[in-house]
UniProtKB/TrEMBL annotation:
Transmembrane segments: 6-25
Lineage, broadest ranks: Bacteria, Pseudomonadati, Bacteroidota, Sphingobacteriia, Sphingobacteriales
Signal sequence coordinates: none
Annotated keywords: Membrane, Transmembrane, Transmembrane helix
Gene3D superfamilies, A to Z: 3.30.530.20
Coiled-coil regions, chain positions: none
SUPFAM superfamilies tied to this protein: Bet v1-like
InterPro entries assigned: Polyketide_cyclase/dehydratase, START-like_dom_sf
Protein name listed in UniProt: Polyketide cyclase
Native source species: Pedobacter hiemivivus
Length: 179
């Protein structure tokens, strides 16, 4: 009985310690990658502002080409929603909405993940002219993990996990647009 009591106190102590640590762990994360594309900014921006085009370059969209897609609104405009549903656990179910467009400069999106976990994050793509026929494209992702789930950020390499996929998507975008 003493051993069980001791084990119970140990488990409760570990849980309390983890909850205390989580109070001091950051809750926000942000990842950004960039690539330079040898095309004018107008051409690049017109391509990336259409969410359906992400099927051609996004690592996540290309994980399951058979995923069920739904669309609401006019692609390339504020309010457009692209939904997806897949049995592939790395794709899951969710939607992406265009929340703001600064023409020729930036597109902001809200990501709502529903499966395999629920979360809301923000993404953006920004373009910057580097010359007449060169455009820098930045793709960024910002998220927040609420307390006490933020404790997982101590063990997750968001920069490595998301950064690799963002860069892979940008490299494919570059190849696609420079053809």
């Amino acid at each position: 009985m003493k051993i069980l009591k001791g084990l119970l106190f140990l488990i409760v102590g570990i849980v309390i310690l983890a909850l205390l640590v989580a109070l001091f762990v950051k809750k926000d994360y942000a990842v950004e990658r960039e690539v330079t594309i040898n095309k004018p900014v107008a051409v690049v921006f017109d391509y990336i502002k259409h969410i359906k085009n992400q099927d051609q370059y996004s690592v996540w969209n290309r994980l399951d080409p058979a995923s069920k897609k739904t669309y609401t609104g006019t692609d390339g405009t504020v309010g457009f929603i692209s939904g997806w549903e897949s049995t592939n656990k790395n794709v899951g179910k969710g939607e992406q909405e265009i929340t703001n467009i600064t023409e020729g400069d930036r597109i902001d999106m809200k990501l709502r993940f529903k499966e395999p976990f629920e979360a809301e994050d923000e993404a953006y793509m920004a373009t910057e002219s580097m010359g007449e026929n060169q455009t820098k494209v930045k793709w960024g992702f910002k998220g927040r993990m609420a307390y006490p789930m933020n404790l997982m950020l101590l063990f997750m390499d968001m920069e490595g996990m998301l950064g690799k996929d963002l860069q892979g998507g940008l490299d494919t975008l570059k190849t696609t647009l420079e053809k």
